[in-house]
Amino acid sequence: MIAVDEDVIKQARAWLIKQQRSDGSWQAHSYYESAENKKRTAMLTAYVARVLAMTAETAKIDGTSSKTGQQVFEVTGPELKRAFDYLAVPANEIDEPYLIAAYALALIEANERPAAAKLIAKLRTLAHEENGANYWSLETNTPFYGWGLAGRVETTALVVQALARMSEPGAVATGSSIQDGLINHGLLFLLREKDRYGVWYSTQATINVLDTLLVFLARDVNSADSISRTAEIFVNGRAAKSVDLPSPNRLVSPITIDLSSFLQPGTNRVEIRRARGSSPASAQAVATYYLPWRESVATQEANWRANGASGLRLVTKFDKTDAQVSDEVNCHVEAERLGFSGYGMMLAEIGLPPGADVDRASLETAMKASDGSISQYDVLPDRIVVYLWPRAGGMKFDFKFKPRFGLKAQTAASTVYDYYNPEARAIVAPVQFVVK
After folding, report:
1. The CATH number of 6-217 is which of 3.20.20.70, 3.40.50.2300, 3.40.50.300, 1.50.10.20?
2. Which residue, 13, 58, 115, 302, could crosslink 315 as a Cys pair with Cβ 3.0–4.6 Å?
């Protein structure tokens, strides 16, 4: 826990309000262009409106809810009213779940629940079903450049949060049992998409998922002592471990169990058995394995990988792989996003042989000649990492290095991936160097 200076929040909020245009929006631009992008403006406005609604101070008591008897507060200031008026049009015209969910959450924060209920009804119609779970597909990239799977997670988390907030005690009843099904199935999608590091691909996707989980944690959970909180784990029919789970209304660290000693070659079956009526819990299986390069998707020198509506292409070519110590080696790199001209930043990791002395001047030259497509680079012992903002048609650059000692060894693999959707990546297999 840390102390937060409330004045900083107020000052930042005041700055945001000053940036609002007269029509209630906050302007957003297309990549590499000064022209306004209307769709991105609507997305950004929905996000900022939600932030302002979350940080608004209660202005006055507006009345008393006839359903709950609780006081209802009016927090919709003039800046929010302008934003809501602006968002009403794109939210009706564009089937963009991120925009609609962010707008709905802003309305819920501002106690504008009847208006939010209409948006919730529209969100239900935009749900997609996959393997018993529901998700909401992002039509463009989020204000934080998220797209692909990471953008889908970021968007679905917002939608599930909006659905759950509308179903909270005291909310206006929707009269639809389908909503609860969508909430549960949306939550199932989010839990399935947790990556091996225990997060959800990008910072914003992870924040949105955690915010959504906290909505569920805040609810009363049936924690009756009469129900066992023990989970029995079986691997291939053998009892592997018995785990005592914490109380369902406690936020705790994950319980990690190593099952490697119970696994066998081929297909393995892992079961988790709990008493009927137990509280909800999530489990994640993480496996680490090695695959020979010849059996992988990686190729020598060039690779292209399709990912949904977009693909990434990477080419790495060395002008020589047989060299003398201190010979100058030139590496040619091509990186391109196929299918869409720009979803945001990409990272290219170019593998180097051990002991390579990278000519930083050649990297500086490449960066200056890239017209902003290379924003920065890092030189690591076995690779260079280049931060790219490629325009349509991709980009090409060269850099040089010198081997410092004799060897017969492979480079690290070369990879290009999208910073805001790491699932999208292309890999070039290692290259063998012989230095005498």
Report:
1. 1.50.10.20
2. 302
